[in-house]
């Protein structure tokens, strides 16, 4: 039985600066130069897409040790699942390579560069998953959360729908508000029951009897 710690924060509700930060990013351009290793990773994606046809494209951002990417690939054999994580160590954990199906491509890269490169090259995903992102719960770290990041305004051009899960409800509530500011579409955060865990975090939180929340936006 896991006994995972709950998220603790000096922030008790939606960040008071959220709207200001999100609107500033919506009304400005994100022009950070692409890093070389991200460009190389994107070339691998382009090559895979040129070699094969798929019924659907799905992206699994911040996939960690790729449990979720591998499971999504097994459950969607006609789709290409693109798992992205910035950590070479996590993606090369023992057993990951042997367990990875043919329809799963794992890229060691930063999400913000891959997202922009996909959009600029007209690669559009049917589904996008951000499962248990680092919550950065300290109030001062708002802009390290994806909805507070400069790249956030790109997301609505990346995929038809986006599924997020977290054990910190405030994170998803903030994302929902930011998404409404970006798209004028409103969605709500739901508590969900977990059957077969999709990620190691999901397994850990579920076995610790923590409430798990989900947000699906489009």
From TrEMBL:
The UniProt entry, under InterPro entries, shows:
SAM-dependent_MTases_sf, tRNA_(Gua-N-7)_MeTrfase_Trmb
Q: Listed GO molecular functions? A: tRNA (guanine(46)-N7)-methyltransferase activity
Entry keyword set: Methyltransferase, S-adenosyl-L-methionine, Transferase, tRNA processing
A Pfam family it matches: Methyltransf_4
| The protein's Enzyme Commission number | 2.1.1.33
Report the top EC class in one word.
transferase
What is catalyzed by this enzyme? Answer: guanosine(46) in tRNA + S-adenosyl-L-methionine = N(7)-methylguanosine(46) in tRNA + S-adenosyl-L-homocysteine
Q: Which domain of life is it from?
A: Bacteria
User: What is the role of the protein in this entry?
Assistant: Catalyzes the formation of N(7)-methylguanine at position 46 (m7G46) in tRNA.
Task: Please identify the protein, giving its name as recorded.
Answer: tRNA (guanine(46)-N(7))-methyltransferase
Its organism's taxonomic lineage begins at:
Bacteria, Pseudomonadati, Pseudomonadota, Gammaproteobacteria, Oceanospirillales
